[in-house]
Design goal:
- This protein is of the alpha/beta class and about 180 residues long.
- Helix content is about 35%, strand content about 30%.
- The chain has helices at about 15-25, 70-100, 110-120, 135-145; strands at about 1-10, 35-45, 50-55, 60-65, 135, 150-155, 160-165, 170-175.
- The strands form two sheets. The protein has a four-stranded mixed β-sheet, with helices on one face. Strands 5-6-7-8 form a four-stranded mixed β-sheet, covered by helices on one side.
- Helix 1 (about 15-25) packs parallel to helix 2 (about 70-100) and helix 2 (about 70-100) packs across helix 3 (about 110-120).
- The radius of gyration is 22 Å and the shape is extended.
- About 15% of the residues are buried.
Length: about 180
């Protein structure tokens, strides 16, 4: 794997470079050809951030992670990249075969493992319930009471199906249907 490692507000020492190359090289086993990984390390006052981009013929893998410890962030971003690869490898190789490509983006042997992950997309449960008319505030209270991160309801004012959801920043969002 080829690396392009840049530091922003940080000097990329040989130790950091070696650790990044060692960890990110773990994903090299998934590829036929040797890809180039672009790694950006950024230091902020309260955390370190790593961004990794791996451009491929049919896909761009990208992950970023922030942590107080740079080495922990590197470990976490590697895990994210591996999850993305396992998620996309069957789909990308199938598209390559359909187009008649001689080479696949991901190694064939790894495709065997991915059939288990295709099963992960299998629908295993269906729920049915009556949508009760309520306002968005009451729907948020119901969502929090149930411990869910979203809640489907009928908006009492518009008589339309709406969804409230909790955002990563701790606030709430509303999706209105047409």
């Amino acid at each position: 794997m080829q690396f392009n490692i840049r530091g922003e507000n940080i000097e990329v020492t040989p130790a950091i470079r070696e650790y990044v190359e060692k960890k990110i090289s773990k994903i090299d086993r998934y590829f036929d050809a040797t890809p180039e990984a672009k790694v950006n390390l950024k230091v902020h006052a309260d955390h370190q951030k790593i961004e990794v981009t791996v451009p491929l013929p049919h896909l761009v893998l990208r992950a970023e992670e922030a942590n107080n410890d740079l080495y922990a962030a590197i470990d976490l971003v590697t895990d994210k990249l591996e999850r993305q690869i396992r998620k996309h490898k069957t789909k990308v190789n199938r598209k390559a075969r359909e187009k008649g490509a001689l080479k696949y983006t991901f190694i064939h042997e790894a495709e065997v493992i991915s059939h288990e992950e295709e099963d992960a997309l299998e629908l295993v449960r269906t729920k049915r319930f009556d949508l009760k008319p309520m306002d968005a505030e009451e729907a948020i209270l119901q969502m929090n009471m149930l411990g869910h991160n979203f809640f489907v309801f009928t908006n009492a004012e518009t008589d339309e199906t709406n969804i409230v959801y909790s955002r990563k920043d701790g606030k709430y969002g509303l999706i209105e249907t047409k």
